Amino acid sequence: MAASINTHFFLMITLPAILIILVFSGSATAQLSSNFYATSCPRLPTIVLNGMRQAVSSDRRMGASILRLFFHDCFVNGCDASILLDDTATFTGEQNALPNRNSVRGYEVIDTIKANVEAACNATVSCADILALAARDGVSLVGGPTWTVPLGRRDARTASQAQANQLPSPFSDLATLISNFNDKGFTPAEMTALSGGHTIGFAQCSSFRNRIYNATNIDPAFATTRRATCPASGGDSNLAPFDKTQNTFDNKYYRALVARRGLLRSDQELFNNGSQDALVRTYSTNPARFNTDFAAAMVKMSNLSPLTGTNGEIRRNCGVVN
């Protein structure tokens, strides 16, 4: 989920997902509830899941893209759908921040799901909640874990391009990454688990060029392979996968790190004679542990500073305030 990832690719598989039900304490969670729409919009989970299934069927990259869209939303003033707000002549949103411009995708998928939700439950469900559910479903549809999503978020009326420009960078060292995630309340272990979202998707050449040409903590054969499609100059938007099974949510990302085949600097920093080495080794041999920890970290991320009660609004159109 680094800022430089451009497009993502994945394959819908039929393996049963692991159901993980997680409960957290804390004021944010206390204001949210998994059955928030049980009476006002009981078909919501089905509508979102069907929308994601359709999106996956028509564009196999979309599950990973929605996961990244959710991450970039939550890390800027909380999970409030601010990233979905379009720029206008009088409003500057987050979509054209450097980590998002020509990179984040999936807005139209959320818009389509929102329209279907509105048809069933007018002016009831927030775009923020739809995005949280869609991110969960996108992961499970490609073989990853599922989890219970607390609901009841409301949508922001504002956005911050300045804060979006400060999203974690693919060029960061471990200390910077730990600090970035600590600022959002995550432990280093939770950061390492969330980074496993890179088990699906691709990154742009511009985000890993320096690593494959200049790094020393890299498998030489891997560097040679990546250089074939990422020249020393030019080809900035050329894509490369994070691991060999970029179509499936698994633990191969961590195996790649142990083999010094991390694509981004920020990836390999998790296994570079530092504090996260032991956990990366654990995840590389224990996919069940990774699935459990990833799901728990995703629930925690979904509880970042939600707007609740009378704060914010329920947008009718995710791209504009009411």
TrEMBL record:
Its EC number is 1.11.1.7. The active site is at 72 (proton acceptor). It catalyses: 2 a phenolic donor + H2O2 = 2 a phenolic radical donor + 2 H2O. The keyword Calcium applies. The keyword Heme applies. The record marks 68 as: Transition state stabilizer. Ca(2+) 1 binds at residues 73, 76, 78, 80, 82, 94. Binds 1 heme b (iron(II)-protoporphyrin IX) group per subunit. Keywords: Calcium, Disulfide bond, Glycoprotein, Heme, Hydrogen peroxide, Iron, Metal-binding, Oxidoreductase, Peroxidase, Secreted, Signal. Residues 1-30 form the signal peptide. One of its GO terms (cellular component) is extracellular region. GO terms for molecular function: heme binding; lactoperoxidase activity; metal ion binding. It is found in: Secreted. Its cofactor is heme b; Ca(2+). GO terms for biological process: hydrogen peroxide catabolic process; response to oxidative stress. Heme b binds at residue 198. Belongs to the peroxidase family. Ascorbate peroxidase subfamily. Belongs to the peroxidase family. Classical plant (class III) peroxidase subfamily. Removal of H(2)O(2), oxidation of toxic reductants, biosynthesis and degradation of lignin, suberization, auxin catabolism, response to environmental stresses such as wounding, pathogen attack and oxidative stress. These functions might be dependent on each isozyme/isoform in each plant tissue. This is Peroxidase. It comes from Rhamnella rubrinervis.
